[in-house]
């Protein structure tokens, strides 16, 4: 009988301990759930506040000041030489160069918009003969041709060399009359009255550069500054593509990247550079245009 009473007592103690343990677990569980709920609600409030800041107001105006972008919708991009030239020229950040350079467009950048390169070269040649643009040999490669509107070029040279009468005479008597990309020494002397001393000063001012013996390229003063940042930016953007797993990247994703501070020309300017120069291949996909690095540039 005593054994039975002790067994019942032990069972009651065990049951009470089990009940107490379950109550403690319930209390801890409730406390944990309430704490997690507060954290979630707090994160939700923070996210909602961020969304409200980015939401458009009742009149469709954004409450946040957005930077002006020169990026155009895909269906609005130019498909002709004149339109492409105008668009790329508008991308040139003259203010970042403190107006030390005119808007410069590389000829191959236009190839990114117009598939037939022969048509581009033909139309540019027509614009050159009409006196609307000037072509310049830039860099060491033969295909590195720069394009500048004649009006922009003349205004720029006037600012740079305003104290040089010989440069002013060269602009009025040679540049306005002859749209060639280069001039022979004999033609300058015999047809335009430019003597040897004049040629030396024109070279010093950066308006002419030596091509061969007795032949000179028409040039842009301080163009070396442009070529330096141009090549630097090209290397930087190609490095972005090279670092991807499959050596390819969506164009829209690349447009969101930021170039180093020394790359003054901007991401869009360089995207059309690497497309037009065939450094990358454009591949149409369901998610957009993919820029795929050429195999010889993957290393």
From TrEMBL:
<dbReference type="GO" id="GO:0046579">
    <property type="term" value="P:positive regulation of Ras protein signal transduction"/>
</dbReference>
<protein>
    <recommendedName>
        <fullName>Serine/threonine-protein kinase 19</fullName>
    </recommendedName>
</protein>
<dbReference type="InterPro" id="IPR018865">
    <property type="entry name" value="STK19-like"/>
</dbReference>
<comment type="similarity">
    <text>Belongs to the STK19 family.</text>
</comment>
<dbReference type="Pfam" id="PF10494">
    <property type="entry name" value="Stk19"/>
</dbReference>
């Amino acid at each position: 009988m005593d054994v039975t009473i002790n067994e019942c007592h032990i069972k009651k103690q065990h049951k009470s301990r089990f009940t107490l343990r379950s109550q403690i677990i319930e209390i801890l569980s409730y406390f944990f759930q309430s704490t997690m709920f507060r954290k979630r609600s707090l994160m939700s409030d923070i996210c909602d506040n961020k969304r409200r800041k980015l939401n458009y107001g009742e009149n469709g105006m954004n409450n946040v000041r957005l930077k002006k972008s020169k990026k155009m919708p895909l269906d609005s991009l130019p498909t002709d030489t004149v339109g492409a030239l105008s668009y790329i020229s508008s991308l040139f950040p003259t203010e970042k160069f403190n107006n030390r350079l005119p808007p410069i467009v590389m000829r191959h950048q236009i190839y990114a918009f117009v598939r037939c390169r022969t048509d581009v070269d033909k139309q540019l040649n027509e614009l050159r003969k009409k006196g609307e643009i000037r072509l310049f040999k830039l860099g060491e490669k033969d295909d590195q041709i720069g394009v500048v509107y004649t009006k922009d070029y003349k205004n720029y040279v006037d600012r740079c060399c305003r104290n040089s009468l010989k440069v002013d005479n060269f602009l009025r008597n040679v540049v306005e009359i002859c749209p060639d990309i280069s001039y022979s020494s004999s033609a300058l002397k015999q047809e335009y009255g430019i003597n040897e001393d004049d040629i030396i000063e024109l070279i010093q001012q950066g308006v002419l550069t030596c091509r061969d013996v007795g032949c000179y390229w028409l040039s842009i003063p301080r163009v070396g500054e442009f070529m330096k940042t141009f090549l630097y930016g090209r290397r930087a953007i190609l490095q972005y593509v090279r670092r991807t797993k499959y050596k390819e990247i969506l164009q829209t994703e690349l447009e969101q990247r930021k170039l180093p501070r020394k790359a003054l020309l901007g991401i869009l300017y360089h995207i059309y550079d690497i497309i037009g120069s065939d450094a990358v291949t454009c591949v149409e996909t369901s998610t957009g245009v993919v820029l795929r690095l050429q195999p010889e540039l993957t290393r």
